[in-house]
Amino acid sequence: MTKPSRYDRIAFVASPSSEAQAAFSQLTRDYGNCDLGEADVVVALGGDGLMLQTLHQNMRTGKPIYGMHRGTVGFLMNEYSTHDLRARLEAAHESEINPLLMRATDVNDRVHLHHAINEVALFRQTYQAARLRILIDERERMSELIADGIMVATPAGSTAYNLSAQGPILPINAALLALTPISAFRPRRWRGALLPNTAYVVIEVLEGDKRPVAAVADPRPFRCGCCSTPATAWKSVFCASNSAIEIQRAAHCRTAELMPARLPLQDRSAGRNP
Hints:
35% strand; 2 domains; elongated; Tumour Suppressor Smad4; four-stranded parallel sheet; eleven-stranded antiparallel sheet; mainly beta; Rossmann fold
């Protein structure tokens, strides 16, 4: 008698690209396509952007996500193959991560919470560099950083924007976060720091009236400082000058609905992300 697979019921999602849609058609024809609510696993067909979107959408379900590369960038994805998919799922190595939680308070004292699986980043919004103060676990670690911005990246996000900003690549199961400046002007030679993933990070926006900053948790940005015109493409929230952006591991939050996200299942042979 054949032993039932842990992943008999598969839900497929795909990016709009022709390559991903062709893979979606073939795989759903070969393996069926279970309703997302009843699936044992979600198979994402596309690039890292689709993987990030799928992780956010399924963060509270506890379902594992298995990505296959049918997009542009695929650091988080496995190689694409239609052969014996259920056996690949059974053999895949499963990892869990805790997303970051970003907390920001706007000028009306309303608190906004956003999760980030890759990184939380702050960017200057005018020609003037951002002026920031950094506190770790309620202790001041840098009284002034003048830069285009700064980010806190998870191991999953260390191969994304963090890498392009010359931040370190972190092993996927490392209990670390990367604190990486973006084009630092002062201190000029500061390249960032490695933090334990339990760190509570507060980044204060200094002179926000003069130097407005946008804070972004993955693709969910909003404005900090008195920037007069919000970007219509973003869901923006105006934060007071000298406001603070708080960043911590989501597992530390006491809200019942905040559950650890599950990383993509990865082939044991895959070496895209250490």
